[in-house]
Design brief:
With about 130 residues, this protein is α/β, with parallel strands linked by helices. It has a single domain, classed as SGNH hydrolase (Rossmann fold, 3-Layer(aba) Sandwich), CATH 3.40.50.1110. The protein has 5 helices and 5 strands, in the order E-H-E-H-E-H-E-H-E-H. The longest helix has 14 residues. The radius of gyration is 13 Å and the shape is globular. This is SGNH hydrolase-type esterase domain-containing protein.
């Protein structure tokens, strides 16, 4: 597996725990509970190069033009060979994330295809981890 970073909100945290429990070597995780895209943009960029960056954002953002603009800024700042976006359960936010992924030719995994406890978080992060590395 390439060196990878999982970046984002609580979904990134849960996914990171599952990936690191199931796969060796695992991924570095830079994630924070309730992190918005604006908050993530304020974080210091990783000093390390990652072959793959997995991004879970949008669940803590209001849909609209500002979200789309912030997602585009976030994506422009990711220096990597491969980006995988985890689309939020909320459809307006998922649409915004997907539009950025399509623009850059990135891979998406739609969380809506996985069971959820609360329509925000997946019921099984292990399922997400396995989908990432299929």
């Amino acid at each position: 597996m390439l060196e990878c970073l999982i970046l984002g909100d609580s979904i990134a945290r849960g996914t990171g725990r599952a990936v690191n429990a199931l796969y060796d070597p695992g991924c570095d995780v830079q994630a924070e509970q309730s992190a918005s895209t604006e908050r993530i943009l304020a974080w210091q960029k990783p000093a390390k190069y990652y072959g793959t960056i997995i991004v879970a954002v949008g669940s803590n953002d209001a849909a609209g033009r500002r979200l789309s603009d912030r997602l585009a800024r976030l994506r422009r700042g990711l220096a990597t060979r491969k980006v995988v976006w985890l689309l939020p359960y909320a459809r307006p936010q998922a649409y915004a994330v997907r539009s950025i992924a399509v623009r850059y030719g990135d891979r998406v995994i739609d969380l809506a295809t996985f069971r959820s406890r609360d329509r925000v978080h997946p019921a099984s992060y292990g399922d997400i981890a396995n989908a990432l590395f299929e």
